Amino acid sequence: MKIPILLIGLLLLIAANTSAESYKKADNELLVEYELLYTYSIDSLERFFEKKEIPKTFAPIRNAVEMYEVTYYGKWVNKSYVKAKGIVFIPKSKGAKPEVAYCHGTRMAIKEKRGLDDDEQMVSIIFAADGYVSYFPFYYGLGGGDKRHIYQHAETEANAVIYMIKACREKLLPELKIETDGNLFVTGYSQGGHAAMATHKMMETPAYSNLKITASAPLAGAFDMTGTQSETIYEEYKDAYYLPYLLVSYNDVYPELWQGDIYNVFKAEYREDLRKYFENPEDMDFNILNDKLPGVPSEMIEDSLLAMLTSDSNSPFVKKMAENNLHNWKPEAPVLLCACEGDDIVLAANTEITYQNMKDNGAEVYKKIYGKNLGHVPCAGFAIMYSKDFFDNVLKDKRRIAKTPFKKRLMIKLGIMAGNRKAKQISKGFSTKEKEIEVE
């Protein structure tokens, strides 16, 4: 019996789709592909660290480092799977190695740099040069992955990290004959602090018992989204784009929250600029977008909707935002929290409240609050130093794992003092210029 060619093609298509679907639903064979992009020799790393003035006391270079790009399947909010991207930095050394995941800060563009050209990937390289297998996941929708990124969304942030680790453990590390020693750490800064906290929390659920987390260091994260951090929308705020980023993102994952066009939430004079940027993610640049937005974020929202987005605890949007709060739970593994007093982007109160709640809940939690005049960006380097020292101490099984050795403590203290002085001078300079303009 002859089967028509069209029918054969249809049957093959159905079989292929069924196979792909069952492959994805199996929650294994997650790694799609990997590629060695670059190898950093010890000499090249030493030259680069010296150029960037990275202190070897905190960032010893003991190994050359291989950089791999990975494409993997991660779980999406509706339990389907999406393709995602990440970078893995592997030390060229013998013996079993600890693992660390670094969660990056807020990004918008889907095209990302790879390696030392990216300041945050440099953090992952610092860990790898000292012997850690170091993961740098791009959140879903970034780095060339599927979907549009869901900003400050705990579930997708955590899944991006967790499924990258699962994918690499499943295939990449065995094929490269890389052994791990059972120690798994997670850290990140800014949005990465929120993502690190979300990852830690998810890893301690029964569904991920095979990913036993050793310790985490969520740094300068907006953990209290509906409380502390929500207050910033009524004040002068450097990065006003955070608010529309959150609203447009939540529309993607919670479409039931809005009736009609999400951009109608914004006042008419801002709608088209926001639509242009968020509907063309390849061209996104938050610096350009910020210039088109008001200095006080709340001023871009339709007056009739403002309470629903902020102060009304019964509004569906505020309830969904509350589901992504991470400031009140009890982690089982140790946690280090860091923030700067002078941070006017992610307020240090997020860290203070989270620390107190975790302590009251009986967790092993530590905090470093410093930098009276240090803003969000200058704060980051010191937070990363503290987190690296914290993880190193855990590996050494020190009794006081958050006690920084004197030499390192002195270096950080002197650095913070210098940073505070510089920030104060800059602030005074701006004040003087403002006064001169007023006189004129």
Q: What is the percentage of strand-forming residues?
A: 15-25%
**Overall mean pLDDT score?**
89
DSSP strand tally:
9
Rg result: 23 Å
- Show unreliable segments: 1-26, 431-440
Order of helices and strands: HEHEEEHEHEHEHHHHHEHEHH
* Percent helix range: 40-55%
Q: What is the first-to-last residue Cα distance?
A: 94 Å
Q: Quick one: biggest sheet?
A: 9 strands, mixed
Shape: globular
Helix/strand/pairing category? alpha/beta
Q: So how many helices? A: 13
Q: Can you list the strand order of the major beta sheet?
A: 1-2-3-5-4-6-7-8-9
Describe this structure as you would to a colleague.
This protein has 440 residues and is α/β, with parallel strands linked by helices. It is 42% helix and 16% strand. It contains 13 helices and 9 strands. It has a 9-stranded mixed sheet with strand order 1-2-3-5-4-6-7-8-9, with helices on both faces. Helix 4 crosses helix 5 and helix 12 packs antiparallel against helix 13. The N terminus and C terminus are likely disordered.
Features:
single chain, 440 residues, alpha/beta, nine-stranded mixed sheet, 13 helices, 9 strands, 42% helix, disordered N terminus
Short description:
The chain has helices at residues 5-25, 42-51, 119-129, 154-175, 191-203, 242-253, 268-278, 286-291, 306-309, 316-323, 349-360, 376-395, 406-439; strands spanning 31-40, 65-75, 81-91, 97-103, 133-137, 180-189, 215-219, 335-340, 365-370. The protein has 440 residues and is α/β, with parallel strands linked by helices.
Q: Any chance you could write out the topology, listing elements then pairs?
A:
Layout: H1 5-25, E1 31-40, H2 42-51, E2 65-75, E3 81-91, E4 97-103, H3 119-129, E5 133-137, H4 154-175, E6 180-189, H5 191-203, E7 215-219, H6 242-253, H7 268-278, H8 286-291, H9 306-309, H10 316-323, E8 335-340, H11 349-360, E9 365-370, H12 376-395, H13 406-439
Helix pairs in contact: 4-5, 12-13
